[in-house]
Amino acid sequence: MSVLPFDDRDGFIWYDGRLMPWRDAQLHVLTHGLHYASCVFEGERVYNGKVFRMEDHNERLINSATILGFEIPFSIDDLAKATLELVSSNKIVDGYVRPVAWRGAEQMGVSAQASKIHVALACWDWPAYFSPEARAKGIRMLWSRWARPAPHTAPTQAKASGLYMICTMAKHEAEAQNCDDALMLDWRGRLAEGTGANLFLAINGELHTPTPDCFLNGITRQTVIGLARQRGIKVVERAIMPDELRNADEVFLTGSAAEVTPVGEIIGEHGHYRFTPGTICRLMWEDYDRAVGKQVAAATAA
After folding, report:
1. Cβ atoms of residues 46 and 93 within 8 Å
2. Which residues sit opposite 181 in a β-bridge?
3. Cβ neighbourhood burial of 79 (10 Å; 0-12, 13-18, 19+)
4. Which of 175, 158, 269, 259 is closest to 215 using CA atoms?
């Protein structure tokens, strides 16, 4: 399968305050963010030319940088204006935006307090994260051997690049076993999340979701919790053990990329479970699509 490389495309990238041709957005091999993971990022979906919950994503980007000990040299308004300019310049209708901020190459070593902070925004066309066939029947997941770290060992409330190393490893292992994604536990052995999406279990008409105390309280997760409560569906945030999956009628993931994606099967060392996407999955999927449509309509009218 031919894949268009991300460093050789037409279009524009917003880099340190200005638009530049896509291929000119370069950084040095001794950039601190590359060697020491002093880098934070976001993932935003574009629907009909409008970014869903853009302000929330920009706030989280700035907060993530603060947790890592650096300050992004642009305001939320600056980032919003840049994002809209970028989406328009690249003529993106339905796609993805990747804001990223990192320490530069002025210092090479663990300490890099004098390094310049760089910020870039890129966007591109992006269809569904999982195939329509996989979403319709539910994706297949593999139990990961990697666990989400304890909050006293890593900046778990930041969307920081270093935290995703084990996600890449876990997803590669899952794909090697013909699975779509991996399901991760936390350091205590509790259910945590997928490699880039939060987890929900439908149990007796209620939604149960792991407490996000060592992984991100996703923006899509927050949206879905709000939508469920609007429908009168009880949402319980709590510690959930792996064997509680046997009590679940339905399971699904949420994320900016994954949106609302049902899980059909989980395999591996912590048990084999099968699920059929049902009423709650469908309602959350449809309600999320409507919520996206309403925001797009409101942004267009404004």
Report:
1. yes
2. 141
3. buried
4. 158
Long-range contacts of 85-88 (CB under 8 A, 24+ apart): 85/14, 85/19, 86/12, 86/13, 86/14, 86/19, 86/121, 86/122, 86/123, 87/46, 87/49, 87/51, 87/123, 88/49
Residue 8 corresponds to which tokens in the numbers above? 């050789």
CB count in 10 Å sphere of residue 174: 24
Pairing of strands 235-238, 250-255: unpaired
Which residue's entry shows tokens 């040095």?
Answer: 28
What are the residues facing 18 on neighbouring strands? Answer: 15
* Identity of the amino acid at 20: M
pLDDT digits (tens, 9 = 90+) for 142-201: 999 999 999 999 999 999 999 999 999 999 999 999 999 999 999 999 999 999 999 999
Q: Which sequence positions are flagged as catalytic?
A: 159
**Which tokens is 113 given?**
């307090």
Summarised one tens digit per residue, pLDDT across range 185-223 is: 999 999 999 999 999 999 999 999 999 999 999 999 999
Instruction: Show the domains of the chain with their CATH numbers.
Output: 12-125 (3.30.470.10), 132-292 (3.20.10.10)
Tokens 């997803």 -> residue: 171
Q: What are the structure tokens assigned to 147, written together?
A: 């666990």
Q: Which two tokens stand for residue 295?
A: 């925001």
pTM of the model: 0.94
